[in-house]
Amino acid sequence: MIRKEQSAVEYFRKKIFYVMLLIVHKKKVAKPVLKGKGKKKKLQPKKFTIDTSHPVEDSIMVVTDFEKFLHDRIKVNGKTNNLGNSVTIERNKSKITVTADCRFCKRYLKYLTKKYLKKHNLRDWLRVVANGKDSYELRYFQINNEDEDEEEENE
């Protein structure tokens, strides 16, 4: 019986030893992570442009209306009409420039542009194409194939 009691005591000692090792090991691993947590990087201002020259020249679209739409719809920290100094929208002839000091992605701008086109029934004729790392352009869909088919049928 003494052997059984000793083995049980040894068993529990080993268990406690392993648990203490795990606790100590976790604390050692967690310390370096906490050191770097206090530093926050300041976000660089991002500048995105949307070129609307083609539809504006054909007087299909009004740039001021699109600018107002963006101003009303852009969300900052989950709220609309919360632009403040963090997001600025500027218009130069037919180009709209959105500058953001906060977290802002290019894809969100494309989403809003598509939403505007859908609202004004322009989505069937225009598409939003990236022509650079930080810019979009509104282009017409290419319908050359249908025109060629019609010409072949007429001949």
From TrEMBL:
Record carries keyword Ribosomal protein: yes
Pfam families to which the protein is assigned, alphabetical: Ribosomal_L22e
Keywords attached to this entry: Ribonucleoprotein, Ribosomal protein
GO cellular-component term (any): cytoplasm
Record's keyword annotation contains DNA repair: no
InterPro entries named among the record's database cross-references: Ribosomal_eL22, Ribosomal_eL22_sf
Entry GO MF terms: RNA binding; structural constituent of ribosome
Any single GO BP term: cytoplasmic translation
PANTHER family: 60S RIBOSOMAL PROTEIN L22 (PTHR10064), FI24544P1-RELATED (PTHR10064:SF0)
Family label: Belongs to the eukaryotic ribosomal protein eL22 family.
UniProt name for this protein: Large ribosomal subunit protein eL22
Source organism phylogeny: Eukaryota, Metazoa, Ecdysozoa, Arthropoda, Chelicerata
Gene: rpl22
